[in-house]
Amino acid sequence: MLGAGRIAAYLMIFGATSMCWLVLGNTMTHRTSTQSSKGDGEVGQLWGGAHRQAAPGFTFRWTTPREVVEHQTQGKRDIVITRVVQDTHERTSMPASTDVNVGLELDERLRGLVWYALYNVAFDGTWSYVHREPYEGVLAVGFAFPDPDGIYDGFKLEVNGVDHSQALRPMDGKVETQLQVKPGEKVVVHVTYKTRGRDTWSYAPTTGVDTLEKFKLTMHTNFNAVDFPTWSLSPTHKAAEGKGMAMTWEFERAVTGRGMGMVMPTRIQPGELAATLAFSAPISLFFFLLLMWVLAVLRGLDLHPINALFLSGAFFAFHLLFGYSVDHLALPLAFGLSAVVSMLLVVSYMRLVVGPKFALVQAGAAQLVYLVGFSLAHFFEGFTGLTVTVLAVLTLFLLMQLTGRIKWGALEGGDTSSTRQDPPQPPPAHPDGPVTSAAPLSGVQPA
CB count, 10 Å around CB of 366? Predict the structure, then answer.
């Protein structure tokens, strides 16, 4: 029976379940945020943060003599004093050539509801400096570590083949060594180390727009889902290498202010997924209950609001179980377990309410599409909205075909004996020809 009271009961049940999902979604968001805040500090202490490796700095300092004339008064005499002072000059230069090799090994870790994109990095860089100034002087070679608080295993800084790493003392995340240079002299700097970081790794060849001379950076990864940071250069060469990628940035002479880098691939975050599924769950429940109600009308069944309440609870059980098991089980296992439990609740209940066939074929198939299928769409970024659109259009088409002949006026009046408006049937043909009247004419008795 299609009564206003029953419709109001359906809407109240749907609204109450939607509020429960809203509370669950906010709870999962809070749990994820809390665990992320705590985990960020712990992971940062163990693995460090995002790395941004800068090119070494070459600073040439020299002095030039200059005469200074001073006038002094002693008694009644003026004395002229001439002395020589040394003026200090300083100039920074870009490397004359760059050859960097970096290997990135992804090492993801799960802490609670959050996946962390951690990585190991092996760095090997060689830079050259050509002294083009006409003066002799001191060249300061400075190298800044990408993370001042990081751990750098096997660190070496060699200048012209001489290892200076033992004598260097880091200060403010930077080491510096000095040497005398003459005009035309070439200096080769070689740095190697191994360390680990998180989320992104990048190389900054310049501090602003400048010229890169004979530049080459080669990167090897153990993953093929490569992505580059914003405002960075794409590699000039890229090729698959086993399970990973080999990429090269190579320029003979380029003017740019951009760097190179890699964004580590990230898995689906369990906490964020659980919250998103909870927030979007009312859509799947609405489609499911609407289809169940139409099928009940077509079959002359009485789908009571209490039945809708238990079905809504079975849907909510999926998201509740998933939200509190996904930080203890692998994501696919938690999803599969939650789906099986929810479907068992619905099918076993509808078996008692209607019958085994309806429970398994109609109710089970609808839940598989609207709950499980819609939830699976969230695993593929960018397809959730398309999935909702397709389900809405297909559901609309199905409902229009199923309800096209329902006597809605009869349902409103309480008559459920016939739910279809069958087309009028022509009268049966008379064996002696067509009959023009179903009753005998007045005053004429049949023979």
Answer: 20
